[in-house]
Each structure stands twice: as C-alpha cells, then as structure tokens.
TrEMBL record:
Protein name, as recorded: Hydroxyneurosporene-O-methyltransferase
Recorded superkingdom: Bacteria
Domain O-methyltransferase dimerisation span(s) in chain numbering: 75-135
InterPro entries with a match to the protein in the record: COMT-like, COMT_C, COMT_dimerisation, SAM-dependent_MTases_sf, WH-like_DNA-bd_sf, WH_DNA-bd_sf
PROSITE patterns per the UniProt record, alphabetical: SAM_OMT_II
Gene source species: Rhodobacter maris
Keyword annotations from UniProtKB, A to Z: Methyltransferase, S-adenosyl-L-methionine, Transferase
Position of the signal peptide: none
Positions of the O-methyltransferase C-terminal domain: 165-371
Pfam family, one: Dimerisation
UniProt GO molecular function: O-methyltransferase activity; protein dimerization activity
Disordered, as annotated region: 1-40
GO biological process: methylation
C-alpha cells in the first residue's frame, strides 16, 4: 500500500545513496517508416519523408513550422524530466525559499541542504521552466513559481506523483494489465475503512482532496446557477469543501453532505444549514429532499457497474424537474486535451476502479437513467474540471 508522507521533505531524509531500480536495457533496433507511406493525410505524408525534413529546414518560412513542431515534440519527449525537475524544486522548497526574497546560490544551498554544483543545475532548469530567474547575482521567484505555490493543493498533488510514476514506469506492462498499480490501493486506503490504520496519513490526503477541491469548486460554481435552488446535496462530497463554497455564494441555500460514515466523522460542520447524511451510494438509497444534486470528482473513480445504478439512485432521489450537476475532468472528446486525455485518463486507469469518460458517454448514461435536457460540457480550464447538467425527466 502506498503511504507517501506528504509532510516530510525528502531533502531531510537520510543521506545513504539510493540505487535506482535496475531494468532491462532496451533493444534499440530502428524501425523505418513504410515506403511508400500508407493512406495518410497530405501533411503527414510530408512529415514521413526524411528528404522533405531537410528541404523544409532550408526554406525560410517552412523551417519555422518544422522548428515549432520540433519544439512541441521535444516537449512531449522530455515531459517526465520536466515533472521530476518540478518535484525536486518542491522537495528542496526552492520556491518557498525564494518567496522570502532573492538569494545568492550559496545562501539557497545552505537553506535547502543541496550542494551548490547540483543546485545550480536544478535552478537553471527551474529558470528554463520559468519558475525562477537569475538576475545580477541573485535568484528570484517568477510569477509562475509564485502561482504554483499559491494554487491550493497543487504542491501536495505534485508530491504524491511518485506513486503514479512508479505505476507508469513500464507503460507497456501497465497497458497490458500485467502490473499491480500502487494507485489502485492508494485512494481506497485514504478514503476506505483502512484509513483507521493510519488516521494521520488519511487526514493529510483528505486535506489534499479538500484543498484541490477549492479550485474545482470555484470553477464549478462559476459555470452553474444555483439562485433558484432550495437544497443542494453533494454526493461523495468528502469533507464538504464544495458545499462550503456554495453556501458562501448562496447563503439561503440548504445543504446536505452525503458520504461514507467514516469520512463524515471529519467533515467540516460549517453551518446550521448543513445536514450530514452518512451512507454508501453503493448499498444505500440516496436521501430525498434536495432539488439539486452534485457529483464532484465522483464518477471517474468508479466502473460503469457502479455509476449506472448510482445515476438511477440520484434520479430517484430528485423531484421532477430537479437538477443533477456532474463536475470532473472528461476525456475522449472530439478535441483531445492534454490534461484530460493524457494525465487524468492514465491516472484513473492506474486507479483500476474507474475511468475518465467522454461527455458523450456521460450523456448516454444520464439518458439511460432517465435524465433529460443534458447540457454540453462547459469548462473554464479543462485541467481543473468541466460541468455537465441534466434534469430529472
Ligand atoms: C500582466 C501580465 C501579462 C503578466 C504579469 C505576470 C503575472 C502577474 C502573471 C499571473 C500569475 C498568476 C496569477 C497565475 C495564476 C495561475 C494559476 C491559477 C494556475 C493554476 C494551475 C493549476 C493547475 C496546474 C492544476 C493542476 C491540477 C492537478 C494536477 C490535479 C490533479 C487531481 C487529481 C489527481 C485528482 C484525483 C481525484 C481522484 C482520486 C481521481 O478522484
Ligand atoms: C475523489 S473524492 C471527491 C471528493 C469531493 N467531491 C472532491 O471533489 O474533493 C471521492 C469521494 O467519494 C466518496 N465515496 C466513495 N465511495 C463512496 C460510496 N460508496 N458512498 C458514498 N461516498 C463515497 C469518497 O469518500 C470521497 O469523499
């Protein structure tokens, strides 16, 4: 079971050298593209020709296109290294150190505990990622680095990525289903009854979920209108962060938080308007009484065999004309998106329980459960969340 402690910096860990796990050395046989190319588009045909690569590189306007494509490809090629640079920046607390002021390399070295020669390489990489910059002998924080440490939960999200990256370190075996992903046991551990074994760890990760929910809730609430709603029930609402933000915008709204009993034990009882409804949407009916029900980052955690009955239960709990709000990242749409179709699709695949669904799939499931007037997915930032609304038919 993964138990990464998000509260202990790796820079404080014992200094014994750690050998990275050895793996097979890849066989680097080079595979030539087919000649002539198969049925491919015009531009793809051009890109399949090494000769045209050379010609384009020498043509004044076309070389801009090839260079731009080269940069985009290199970004994909090096994505893992960029993420690991970010993780090191986080673990050595470099952005926090620079948020206190601009410092010389030696000063940052003393404060971070990282030797100057290696720190210089790390800071230079962070500067290339525009997180920091070097001016007149001092290292400074850049707006991007400042935003990074300010977005709620983002640093902790990055600190838990080693669990995901361990699962993806052999993507072929992972995709063939030949691995046992750690992430599969991770969130069930945090939210499941096993959380009692390590209540501190569970609380820290519930906090991470609540922190990251602040941005999700902000975007969701900007995309929906609850001014006519009387009672909002958040199903799988965790500690209640979404309802707290909804209550701040709509003070007259009555609220119900439905989640597993042990999760509600640590829920935020922020208002007398809030009712806690402990239960499992797998085993229990969803309580009636709300004219709006929300499912925020819930469906993609579960397989269709759980989601379909859940949507039916939500339908049964709503009055005629009642609304359902689904907010999470959707993938598989007509416009493939890096955040949803790369990050979240693989993240949820590693969880082994649910999957990232397309808006079209969600629509079909909603209609099957009896919902009507299903809206198109709307979003402000696809990497934060998108929203679909539907009405009880
Ligand atoms: C005036 C000009 C032009 C410039 C001056 C400079 C200036 C002031 C710039 C502005 C700086 C600024 C204010 C920037 C703000 C940036 C923001 C708000 C960035 C937000 C970024 C958010 C990110 C990257 C979010 C990432 C979210 C992640 C990775 C979420 C992961 C969630 C998971 C894994 C959830 C799992 C749930 C489960 C388990 C599947 O159910
Ligand atoms: C990914 S978290 C999302 C929490 C919150 N909505 C958010 O966006 O931060 C999934 C939530 O679903 C809850 N959950 C999982 N299985 C459940 C079940 N069978 N019945 C009720 N809640 C459940 C978990 O306890 C957790 O709070």
């Amino acid at each position: 079971m993964a138990k990464d402690d998000v509260s202990v910096s790796r820079s404080e860990a014992a200094a014994a050298p750690v050998k990275p796990p050895a793996g097979p050395v890849p066989d680097l046989g080079r595979e030539e593209p087919p000649r002539p190319p198969g049925r491919v588009g015009f531009f793809t045909r051009i890109a399949l020709s090494p000769r045209l690569h050379e010609i384009f590189e020498r043509m004044p306007l076309m070389n801009r296109v090839t260079r731009r494509e080269g940069v985009a490809l290199f970004d994909v090629v090096s994505g893992f290294v960029q993420s690991q640079v970010l993780l090191a920046v986080v673990e050595f607390r470099l952005l926090h150190i620079l948020a206190e002021g601009a410092w010389r390399l030696e000063q940052i070295s003393l404060r971070s505990g990282l030797a100057e020669d290696r720190l210089a390489v790390l800071l230079q990489a962070a500067a290339a990622l525009k997180l920091v910059k070097f001016r007149r002998g001092l290292w400074h924080l850049m707006p991007r680095g400042a935003a990074f440490i300010t977005v709620p939960g983002l640093e902790s999200m990055v600190r838990h990525h080693p669990v995901l990256y361990r699962d993806l370190c052999d993507p072929v075996a992972f995709l063939k289903g030949q691995t046992e992903p750690e992430l599969a046991g991770f969130w069930p551990y945090v939210f499941g009854p096993l959380a009692r074994e390590d209540a501190g760890l569970a609380a820290r990760y519930s906090q991470l979920m609540a922190d990251s929910q602040r941005t999700v809730a902000d975007d969701t609430l900007r995309l929906i209108d609850l001014s006519k709603a009387k009672r909002l029930m958040d199903v799988g609402g965790g500690t209640g962060a979404f309802l707290r933000q909804a209550a701040a915008l709509y003070p007259e709204l009555d609220l119900t938080l439905f989640d597993l009993p042990h999760v509600l034990e640590v829920a935020d009882r922020f208002s007398p308007r809030l009712t806690l409804a402990p239960g499992s949407f797998r085993d229990d009916p969803i309580p009636e009484g709300a004219d709006v029900i929300s499912l925020v980052r819930v469906l993609y955690d579960h397989p269709d065999s759980v989601v379909e009955p859940l949507l039916k239960k939500v339908h049964a709990a709503l009055p005629p004309g009642g609304r359902l709000i689904i907010s999470e990242t959707f993938g598989g749409g007509e416009k493939p998106d890096r955040a949803c179709d790369v990050y979240f699709a693989f993240y949820t695949m590693a969880m082994c329980s649910g999957r990232t669904r397309s808006p079209e799939e969600i629509k079909q499931m909603l209609e099957k459960a009896g919902f009507v007037r299903v809206t198109k997915a709307r979003t402000l930032r696809p990497f934060i969340t998108s929203v679909i609304e539907a009405e009880r038919g």
